[in-house]
Sequence to fold (393 residues):
Amino acid sequence: MKEFELKYGCNPNQKPSRIFMADGSELPIEVLNGKPGYINFLDAFNGYQLVKELKQATGYPAATSFKHVSPAGAAVGKELSEVEKKIYWVDESIGKLSPLACAYARARGADRMSSFGDFIALSDVCDVTTAKLIQHEVSDGIIAPGYDADALEILKSKKKGNYNIIQINPEYKPEPIEKKQVYGVTFEQGRNDFKIDEELLNHIVTEHKELTEQAKIDLIIALITLKYTQSNSVCYAKNGQAIGIGAGQQSRIHCTRLAGQKADNWYLRQNPKVLNLPFKEGIGRADRDNAIDLYIGEEYMDILADGQWERVFTEKPEVFTAQEKREWLDGNTDVALGSDAFFPFGDNIERAYKSGVKYIAQPGGSIRDDNVIEACNKRGITMCFTQMRLFHH
Fold:
């Protein structure tokens, strides 16, 4: 297949639309089901690059959940705790999850609100347990280097048989120069094939030098995730997964706040008050996710007001007070944080510290590096200067 015709581009008025190889060669993909669109393919190709690099860097199977050309979550295949199974809505009837299934449960579960209607990318051949997880989620499609026969049949049953399934050639190597057009003008640049690994974390600039093996993995996950996230971007990671991604903000402090709030929400969902919310029988996953998001947020009365809570709960839950939330969040520790460009002010460090950050990797190079290092020293944070910017547009 040398080209694939699309229904339209980013919007229905943008026609004609297609993907093809400029040199006339075969496309490195095969569409096994459905008819993916323009944005689907953007998510698919960016997502697959991310998980391929995560697998190469960590040795673990990897998965990502993409929305609007940025990851909502990314993770490697570490086993789930019982609490994580609950907050990620893992159905116990599926049985023991494969490492790849664990990776997707983490990637999807980090920010379930943003992952609604995601495009999935997997580093490895999709197996049955991974397909069974995906079967119950609202998703637009998937890209992987292959599919077990039974897994493929499960996925084909989604969306009344129209679920988008793409198989990519894992041996495909793109050209070293990439091009795109904006307003009729052609842009050309070398592909960002910069390798992210542990060597990037050797330049520690703070008084605190501790960097655990898990912290190294989490920082690598954060940095590779940022490599494929619309800039400006900041990523919080913990225990093998991204837990908060702030994408496409013009101000770095707003990235840090947005990603930090998402990381906080991920941890708040593990509080017993949230785990034990009295949902009615038959309430769908999306409705549960929406209710939880409101319940743990500042606008909790939107779900707890009389006439509202009755729609989803069997009884009215107690308010999750600001003090209770703060006390719970203080238990979230050893969080890693990556930034795609330098932190210009120490306020980013102060905000990160509130979300349990203990390890930071960022390029460095600001005229206020001393201020940022001082803020880390004050808070007992270990910070590495990678000396490599990771902008993505």
In short: The longest helix spans residues 38-58. Residues 331 and 356 are 8 Å apart (CA to CA).
